[in-house]
Model the fold of this input.
Amino acid sequence: MASSDAVTPPTRTSVGQRLRGALRRWVGRFSGPGLAGALVCFVIALGPALIPRAAFYQGAVGGICAAIGYGVGVLLARLLRTCGVVWSRPASRWFRRGLLVAVVVGVPAALLWNATWQNEVRELFGQEPQESSRPFVVLALALVMGVLLLQVGRGLRWVTRRLARLLGRLVGRWVPRPVALLVAVVAVTWVTVSVLSGAVVDTLMSSLNTAYAQVDDGTDPGVTQPTDPLRSGSPDSSARWEDLGLQGRTFVAGGRAHEQFVDVAARTGRTADLQDPIRVYAGLRSGGTLEETAQVVVDELDRTHAWDRSVLAVVTATGTGWIDPSLADTFELLWGGDTAIASMQYSYLPSWVAFVGDRTTPPAAGKALFEAVYERWSQLPEDARPQLFVAGISLGSFGSQGAFSSAQDVAARTDGALWMGTPGFTPLWRELTDERDAGSPEITPVLDGGATARWASRPGEGDDRQLWSLGEDWQQPRIVYDQHASDGVTWWSPSLLLHKPDRLSEPRGTDVLDSTRWVPVITFWQTTIDLFVAGLAPAGHGHNYHQEYADGWAAVAPPDGWTAADTDVLREVVGSVPSVA
Done:
């Protein structure tokens, strides 16, 4: 006889149903307004920027901006609730349904938009379009980055609430709950920033310094110790080959073949004798302090009789001690080798690390090097010493300008300056840009009608010869800034978080899309990513100035009788024939 109390076996739930239920519960933990904010910021982050970027970088900036958007959405929702705005359950359901539709439509549209503008920028750069922007990789990386940052934020929120409750129990009689919460927020923020800027950053910088110091011990393939006594690191040099560092060894061993000097001289009508260029350099191990290292450079200038040359360039290197070969080669070809170039290393770290973590050493090094050279140069008779120029690219430009207080100071103590791809946080550059003549654009300012300082943003060819667009009545000494409208290194600034730059309120540069817009916070992160990809752009765009040294040096340090046609020859040789080690 069957019992009426028999138990009915439980219904088995499929794996798919369990997963869907878990996913539904997980998604339900997220704030609807927060998700809406994340979607809006993600879509905007995939919009036009300065440089095409790989899926990894695009996914990173999309995830960071989505996390920021989520926080903004949550904050706005709480403010509305505080003001008494409460949504009914049906309204909340319809909001989430609408949000789902927006995600289904908006995300694919944003990914398509991203691929479209990147190919438009490639067209401006003269590159072939990319077949795929790898949208699924972008989306996956953005999700991972966004969720990771969100969890970190939730963890900090949990700590803040626990601390606020503890304060409430301890001093609740005397301190209102909102004040306790504010104190908790301030305390957690202060501890977080202190830990990140202290223990984390210091440990990371120390580890990177150790790692790159080991790299600095190496030598690039094909680079061999010079035997020419006019080069540091040679057997005659007091600056030992082993102490010059990776980039220093490459610099002193490099240069153009003699045949290229003969070619340029013949095509430009040079009649003076050709000479072997002088290159002096001191590595980070050459001296205990920046001043001691700079003195080694001066000793090398004395040893090589560099003061007998027609021109001397003091070049501040980038973070690792790198000097752009085109900068040095162009200067030497321009003057038929009747030149001396002096530089030194001040860090093991690459520029992007120094860019973020050390902005005091580059200008200190630039000042130490220039002051040491200038002191010795000043002791020589005015009619028996070389013309003195200063130069640098990127972090080297930032460091080089650290030796001067103003444009007048540059003109008083040098015969000219060539600074390429200057970072936007450089004080002298910023001051001169802000003082530009009314109506001139930020990307190519006009200062005092172009009397002393001039800017260029494109390779100078034909009608595009910007340095001479203000006329040839240009006094010496001359200062030349070369900067591309698409170079994130020049245009990155913390002010982008909340301040619209002039360059995006004015007509765009020739290699920047008209659709590029400023959006608070989002543009800052887009430009931050542009810092890491700017050097991958083709010549004449981004942070690649390979073709513009001919125009820059010809404007700043022209030999007697030098013409625009001669500059065309120099540009052709530098751009088409490789340097040799």
